[in-house]
Amino acid sequence: MSTEAPPAAEQRSGPAGTWAALRPLVLRLHFYAGLLIAPFLLVAATTGLLYVFTPQLEQLVYDRELHVPASPRTASVDDQLAAAQAAHPGASLMSIRPAPTPTDTTQVIFHAPDLPESFQRTVFVDPHTTEVRGILETYGSSQALPLRAWIDNLHRGLHLGDVGRLYSELAASWLWVVVLGGLLLWFRRRRTSRKRLVVPEPGATGRKRLLSWHGAIGTCIALGLVFLSATGLTWSNYAGANVTELREALAWETPTVSTDVVPPEHQGHHGHHGHSAHTGGDVGPERVLRAAEAQGVTGPVELTPPTSGGAYVVQQVQRHWPTQQDSVAVDAASGQVTATLRFADWPVMAKLARWGVDAHMGLLFGLVNQLVLAALVVALLTTIVLGYRMWWRRRPAGAFGAPVARGAWRQVPLRVLLPLGAVTLVVAFFLPLMGVSLLAFLVLDTALGRRRSARS
């Protein structure tokens, strides 16, 4: 994706000269955004590359906590919970993830108010002997163990809290803009063969060779980069909040199974909604799990105890394809299933959001997903380095960058300029950090232009 003006002979004319007027704007935006946002992209890409293979690293580093010898005997979930509570007395139970296979441990998860947000303490229990294999701090809904949690927070915010998260949001906000601007510049260049869009020009030397590789690699990974940008924004502070509000307004949010329990005296009657009543007693996690299995909710699951007199929730947590996210609610007093929610019944946009996040994390398609992400990140790093190399070779001595025609926006027809301005305002509102940084780019561009005019 080009960061420089091609020779006039290589330019393609746009309808009614519109492209000729727009090109300097696109080039200038691509140049400044690419040059100034690239350091943030370098950090995000490097830390993301570290994260890609952390699931395999977890299996090696935390082998004792995660794995046990297989045995024909399995203790009840109730007994496993009792062993975990004895090892971590006084803690409030958050959820239980029973061992999905005979060689896995059961994870009993406790609230940890003394830890940062989204962290909890997990007791790992041998499902056969109820031996406690270890207690670790875990993070998020994916139950990231300390190594993966550390790298995750490095990627997300450089371990600097909310201030650090600004860097990743800035990178995600601008990545798609740099990509689309670069594609527009690259596809408008005149070339003898369309193959040169994705295959570097053989025999090219110097700056032309750098540009050929930069544009071809950028074109090949463009779709993947836009995907990473869009899914990455869902985790951000400001743009992420806007995404959440939009999903709520359009009823695209992830549904949850109802945990309301109707009291016996109201069963069979209509017009009673929202009742939550615990009728006494608790059948325990073991019977709850058996009730869920009878409804087909099997495999890796998470069992969440009732709160405020509601029901237990048993939710499938398999994040790889085919996605299993069915859930049921089970009455604690009777052990009866009171509600069922199938992943097949989720709204389409909620499904796409689930798949998008899992693919971004390298979970959806397992090792293939991880290898594709790794290749995508390496290609992005290569493209950034090539872009910087082109800028350095073309940069005039003592100047920030190669001169690009200024003020060309005045030649853009109003029928193009007004919609473009309106779209920019909407995007800047939806992506606040992009709007603020765009304003900073304009100030910098104006200052450099005045400095150049003063010198000349």
TrEMBL record:
TM region positions: 31-53, 166-187, 216-235, 363-388, 416-444
The keyword Endoplasmic reticulum belongs to this UniProt entry's keyword annotation: no
Pfam family name, one: PepSY_TM
Signal peptide limits: none
Keywords annotated in UniProt: Membrane, Transmembrane, Transmembrane helix
Source organism: Saccharopolyspora karakumensis
Region (Disordered): 259-283
Domain of life: Bacteria
Protein name: PepSY domain-containing protein
